[in-house]
Fold these 2 entries.
Entry 1:
Amino acid sequence: TPLTTSIDGKACAERVLDEVADDVARLADEGIIPGLAVILVGEDPASQVYVRNKIRKAEAVGIRSLEYRFDDTLPQAELLALIARLNDDPEVNGILVQLPLPANIDEASVIQAILPAKDVDGFHRQNAGGLWQGLPSLAPCTPTGCLRLLRETCGELAGKHAVVIGRSNIVGKPMAALLLDADCTVSLLHSKSRDAAALCRQADIIVAAVGRPGMVDANWLKPGAVVIDVGINRIESETGGERRTRLVGDVDFAAASQVASAITPVPGGVGPMTIAYLMQNTVTATRLQRH
Ligand code: GUN
């Protein structure tokens, strides 16, 4: 029987959202209601679910949301024109463009068009660079949520060896920056890393963000390690002639539970934290723009 803690991301996200709701109430005393614009281009089914959840949580904490939906024929120039209008609109404090974008639109150009002070995803180069220099910046929501889970699970982070697997701009790279800022010793692994398993076995903390189901196995873990699984992989399975999809992470949860001291489940681990920190970032952005 595993002595492992399953880290409850839903409960932690509720605590973050309670904090955000308090912040929103204090802004309301000043006559300020934060506004979040959410833009979805195309029909990606996962993106539709994420956007719906973001809008629902915004309303739950008292943030005004504006939803913009387009089909995948939207010209890039029109998307850039919308962002320019939202940049200039004082009622809009946060702008989120759900990724991925259709192939005819250049993601980097769209991200750089967002005013850095309204970039609640923290993807703009000014925020990404500021994060690495320890300057006040909007940081990406998913790694910020992971850091909160680690702080509540591990206690002191200083001096611990954290291994991050995956070097995306959305998760891996900002996660490494945040852990470094928390005084961890950080190893950033990726698809070309030699002997990833041996490096992982030296880790006190593992954050897996590669999008490969079951890639991190029990024999990759030091006993007692804390594991954060950012992967969201849809698996088609067939049981008794019934086809269904289920969500799994990058970590073999059942096997890892025999070795790790704590691990996030998928779903119910990191996912809810991402949305909670989007709301927190919207409040932070609103404060940055105040007066
Ligand atoms: N697609 C996958 N993750 C994210 C995210 O955190 N923000 C946005 N905008 N799109 C995403």
Entry 2:
Amino acid sequence: MSLATTQVATRGAVAVRSVDKSYGNQQVLHEVDLDVAEGEVLVIIGPSGSGKSTLLRTINHLDKVDRGTISLDGELIGYKVRNGKLHERRESEILAQRTEVGMVFQNFNLFGHLTALQNIIEAPIYARKIPKAKALARAKELLARVGLADKAGAYPRQLSGGQQQRVAIARALALDPKVVLFDEPTSALDPELVTEVLEVIKDLAKSGTTLIIVTHEIGFARDVADRIIFMDSGRVVEQGTPNELMTNPQHERTKSFLSKVI
Ligand code: ADP
Ligand code: MG
């Protein structure tokens, strides 16, 4: 293997190792182990309260793990090893790491006082000090990519839920993240607006960006996922290709969950 080949950096590979997380005396993640490969589209399914959102939030250190580690392209998230021990990183380093992880929430979380375009350029300009002209040009490209080139000047309240979520996706992509996390991106939408958002995510999936998507849209999961994991009570119960998991689930809990959602 040539040096050039060995030095190609991975992009967006996530490794979760033996992660435990509790709130008070309730343990919500139990020894979660998960590998997401560069460019992979991983879908997480599971009942409400099974720890899906918590797992996503630990990936960008919005929630701190109690035990275990999470790394992105080999770099520990939120911690550093010093003298053989884990030490939490400085706030500035944590914020810098967070800019490598895009996040799309159920409720869009756009800034209501900013236009679509301003929402997208906010982080590039203030968190990464990208020159305004460059950030604007990129934001316009991203708006076009999500089919909203004509909505640059619109405020969130002037947009439908589906349009707001597409702006939120454009915003999540603005810093060219290594991985994008979606937490039930269509759960808050009226049924007729779901498809337009799923189409944007499918398009992104084809582009080779690593995606981790929590969703209850089982048909979409089947179309878009390279792999699906089923979580229950804070554990990864089962995982496989969409076909394996949907047509031949191994665990009773997976079967019972799927029988309710399909
Ligand atoms: P899911 O996304 O699968 O519905 P969550 O990760 O949101 O599950 O929640 C897992 C469990 O942790 C639930 O029992 C929930 O009530 C609890 N939980 C989540 N966030 C908090 C929090 N900030 N404080 C206390 N309990 C929480
Ligand atoms: Mg959730």
